[in-house]
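Table S7 (text form). Paired inputs.
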Amino acid sequence: MSTAITPEVTATTTWNIDPVHSTAQFKVKHMMISNVKGEFTAVTGKLNLNGEDITKSHVEALIDAATINTRDAQRDAHLKSPDFLDVEKFPTLSFKATRIAKKGDDEITVAGDLTMHGVTRHVVFAVEGPSAPTKDPWGNLRVGLSASTRINRKDFGLTWNAALETGGILVGDDVTLTLDIEFIKA
């Protein structure tokens, strides 16, 4: 977090995720040779930001699993199926922070519980930001941040795979999650 605290953020304030200006992206190895990237297009949540002590802040986010988009309708349908996310049974992915720690002047770590496919695991996001509050053209205050972590999809029960004729597997186990989030002051 920026070291300059503005009067608007000296106490705990509530900020809502702006879904139009926020993305939740992922990447995973395909055929052990390249990365496939995708995103979820519906992200909601809130940040209770303590401007005096970032470690006393709290963040929660919810993602609509059915909004997965990898630019391939057939692959998206497979990812929504019981082989992967099973969106009929598990319609959302969620994250709830349990601990926020300062790592440097402009970097923090946010540890918390990530729930996906009905399985909850503890993860730690490396976070850049939040930025200093900025007024948009309509008078709203906004802050932004970027967060990333790496998970093993099998830890969340996402075990489907296929062996390749040449050896190896079709889908890698490690998945990088990257969130670029913009918040609007409530």
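Next pair, protein 2 of 2.
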Amino acid sequence: MPRVRRIKAPHLHREIFRRIMRSPRVVEILKQLLGPGVRRHGSKLNIKAPHYGSPVEWHQDWAFSPHTNDDLAAVGIMLDDCEMDDDCEMDNGPMLVVPGSHKGPVYDHHGPDGRFCGAMDPARCDLDLSKAMPCLGKAGSVTVHHVRAVHGSATNFSGKERRFLLFQYRAADAWPLLGFAGGIEKFDELLLAGEPTLEPRLTAVPVRLPLPPAAHQGSIYENQRATGRRYFATADRAVAAE
């Protein structure tokens, strides 16, 4: 019973996603948060099927894509209701974010073999993960989280879909430290507001490069296969526990 967990770059496949990504209302909010210049960074549609949707272990987006400064953010749009059930349980796996963690350190996202795995080791961080706040709301609700915010999500144990559309943005003067494969012309095509610049803004932000690359390439789900540790239960483990 194969299930789709993620659609990468949905804005490349459907005009509706391109329109949302460029929405003037969204861009205006980002200009207030990131500065007058804003570039697109990426998009994805995370899909958690009922009674299955895979968990995403605790991580920081910054670990995957460090830049010359950390004025980057992700805008999430709930395509399904993501709320408490009648028993006050969050059973469909909402995104959880640790408040204030964007002001803290960049945690190690490497596995036991020393390779990048896209997940933190909860036992080796100084965060109280029990204080993470769920991002809840009706379909159409919007979230914004900073690139260094620690976040994750549990398995979808409910009988309801949980589809979450994410658009990633960066300040126009935030340049990826690992380079940009498309060249300067393609990079400037990502500009949504402001003017292009050849002067990256360098700030004193903590950086740990995602190298050596993950043993399992692909999405974050594949990267995290090599973590060697699990904070959130998977659907298979939950069934076995019952």
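Residues 95 and 153 are 5 Å apart (CA to CA).
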